[in-house]
Records
---
Amino acid sequence: MIVAEHLRKTFPGRGKDKNPVIAVDDVGFTAHDGQITGLLGPNGAGKTTTLRMLYTLMAPESGRVVVDGIDVAADPERVRRNLGVLPDARGVYKRLTARENIDYFGELHGMPADAIAQRTAKLAAALQMEDFLDRATEGFSQGQRTKTAIARALIHDPRNVILDEPTNGLDVMTTRGLRGFLKELRDEGRCVIFSSHIMQEVAALCDRIVVIAHGKVVAQGSTDELREQAGETNLEDAFVKLIGSEEGLHA
Ligand SMILES: Nc1ncnc2c1ncn2[C@@H]1O[C@H](COP(=O)(O)OP(=O)(O)OP(=O)(O)O)[C@@H](O)[C@H]1O
């Protein structure tokens, strides 16, 4: 379970505009085990910055993150052992094959070789990676790189999974496959959080949706609860009302 409490992050102004950028402003939500939680918001809403604070890459200016009862600021190492992260920059090593990329992370987590091999086989089957598993990742398509980065993030079988825009740039079939995979992770009882700027994406997949705009949580709940909060029967109308724009409505 991941709890975000009153998170705030400001960046100094750069260039001509010296005003600081308030990227995240009092963001709070709980992502439960056995559920998929979606962070939905338009470009620049603060999703990536929020996720970076959740997965210990960036310290919040105020507020805190608690993962499975552990305060991230107090014991980031322990938290990281129970997190699988797909960052916004996928960053696969291009000289290595997909399998070597995955193995490397398994080794960093101190896993024995046979456990790495077994887990890789399971992930490669679930993500339909068998065709390219032993190819060097240089020249990989965006979907192949994303799948490699997801498998690498999950090699150590983490209880909590955080994915930044996992379906970005993926084709319809790959997206369908990935959705099924995320549902499996949820059904295994894991806590899954992902960000997206596409309403249909989160509506199709998430048990809970946290709607973020201009660094703030403007609404959260199930799709039914969001419709109710917005006073709209149509989900699309509800999102437009909550976010205040039509951005992100069309995939
Ligand atoms: N390192 C940084 N330095 C300065 N400003 C930043 C930095 N990181 C993020 N920002 C600003 O903070 C705001 C939130 O950015 P963030 O990347 O969190 O949004 P997002 O919701 O993930 O957007 P997108 O969907 O476009 O990826 C934006 O205005 C962005 O320009």
---
Amino acid sequence: MNHRLKRHIVLIGMMGAGKTAIGSEIARRYGVRFTDIDAEIEAAAAMTISEIFDRDGEEFFRRRETQVLSRILAGPPAIISTGGGAWMRPQNRKLIADSGLSVWLNCDLETLWHRVRQRSTRPLLKTADPKGTLARLIEERYPVYGLADLIFHSQGGDSVEASATRLIAEIRAADPDLLEPK
Ligand SMILES: Nc1ncnc2c1ncn2[C@@H]1O[C@H](COP(=O)(O)OP(=O)(O)OP(=O)(O)O)[C@@H](O)[C@H]1O
Ligand SMILES: O=C(O)C1=C[C@@H](O)[C@@H](O)[C@H](O)C1
Ligand SMILES: [Mg+2]
């Protein structure tokens, strides 16, 4: 059924937390727009994120990420999936707070590792000990992710569909007017 979003719903969290999977499922179900910031960065640069990191470095990528996030947030309300590091910049947190509800998809290390271990698309995990890197990023980031408006506890055994249903209920409880039928 088609719905209207009053503000953006901005999904934050680690690589593999399900921002893209759950975000696109919710958007499909409610007929609202879904935007993935990583995909927007890649489209604007006509390069993959790995290529941007390799050629121009992480700092350059982070500046691009803020520009793209700012452009998407200025557009019509959408469900937005951010890259894992986006929420760590205070400037990005301010941009998100000004126009959306931030939702952290909180997921444990073992579940994340199970989901990302096969992927070669995430430059930050191209290390000698990717699981250790993931654990270190979790330690650094979780206190900051915890500043989100809503914390969704992802349950490892749940399907994407079940998680999307539970997340919608939690979003409705946090802000009953955010997602309304057209
Ligand atoms: N309950 C669940 N919630 C979310 N994802 C799940 C769940 N169960 C299985 N998955 C699978 O886990 C993967 C989650 O990856 P996804 O790309 O959505 O994460 P992400 O947060 O967007 O990561 P990235 O920052 O790397 O883009 C998907 O392949 C999805 O199908
Ligand atoms: O966790 C991170 O810092 C990143 C996650 C990805 O979504 C990409 O935005 C990029 O690979 C950086
Ligand atoms: Mg994603």
